[in-house]
Amino acid sequence: MEKLIITCAITGAELSKDETPVLPVTPDEQARAARECVEAGASIIHLHVRDDQARPSQELAHFKRSVEAIRAACPDTPIIQFSTGGAVGEAMEKRIEPLSLKPEMGSFNTGTINFGDDIFVNSFPDMRGLAAGFKKYGVVPEFEIYDLGHLANLEKLIKEGLVTPPYHIQFVLGVPGAMQGDCFRDLAPLVQRLPQPSTWGVAGVGRFQLPLATVAIATGGHVRVGLEDNIYFSRGVLATGNAQLVSRVADLAKLYGRGIASIQEARQLLGL
After folding, report:
1. Average pLDDT taken over every residue of the chain
2. 1 lies in some domain
3. Is the pLDDT of residue 30 over 90?
């Protein structure tokens, strides 16, 4: 198998320190979290940013200061993957704007879903505009798949010539209102329909994080963990930080005899 790429989604847009006091929301906190995650085995940092009141933000200035802090804190700068999802309800123009900073990667949501009590809207006009933004700024997309129909949406974008191979695909399973993450039952039909050539990873939300990570490690996929997706280390026990979740995945990979990709090896695997 290819070496395992570990992504850590360190902050997200929906959580607050009231839910987990170790959530990194300032640039300095995000920089420390990124360094600890890299030391634990992560090669990609999935980045949402916050404003001075810790509210979700898509402002360029807020992305700039977090990126600068992460680069200063990490002797070997990880792949920084910007979120273009933002917070639920964010206008697409604001979601696209941070791509102008030309990060190595960005997330690309491929369809509309119920998101808890909200609706996370990604219409085809939205996705076409997003594809144009990725192309304009030369950013590599990671396609976020929350449901089986999202693969059909991606296939439509491919047929329209709006996105090009190779494709890196992240299955985000367990969001209330979208496809759940009961290991082989939910993951297998998604993997079987991957467009080629592609690499794939899985982000399990909440209780699905650990079992889906285990399946991905054993079957050749890559793994995303982090407080954005899951704040618990075990039932009822809060994680001490993002790095604890990364370390567990790295330990699992060692048990399976699967190597961990360095930052440079991850760049090569993803064609960056």
Report:
1. 95
2. no
3. yes
**115 phi/psi in degrees, rounded to 5:** -130, 90
Write b or e for each residue in 117-146: b if 16 or more Cβ atoms lie within 10 A of its Cβ, otherwise e: eeebebeeebbeebbebbeeeebbbbbbbb
Of 192, 196, 151, nearest to 172 by C-alpha is 151
Is 216 within a domain?
Answer: yes
- CATH number of residue 167's parent domain: 3.20.20.70
What is the rounded CA–CA span in Å between residue 256 and residue 57? 39
Q: Is 114 helix (H, G, I), strand (E, B) or coil?
A: strand
- Count structural domains, the chain: 1
What are the b/e assignments for 238-252, b being 16+ CB within 10 Å? ebebbbbbbbbbbeb
Read off the pTM: 0.96
Q: Residue 39 has which token pair?
A: 């030391």
Amino acid at 202: V
Q: What are phi and psi of 19, to 5 degrees?
A: -85, -35
Encoding tokens for residue 106?
């960005």
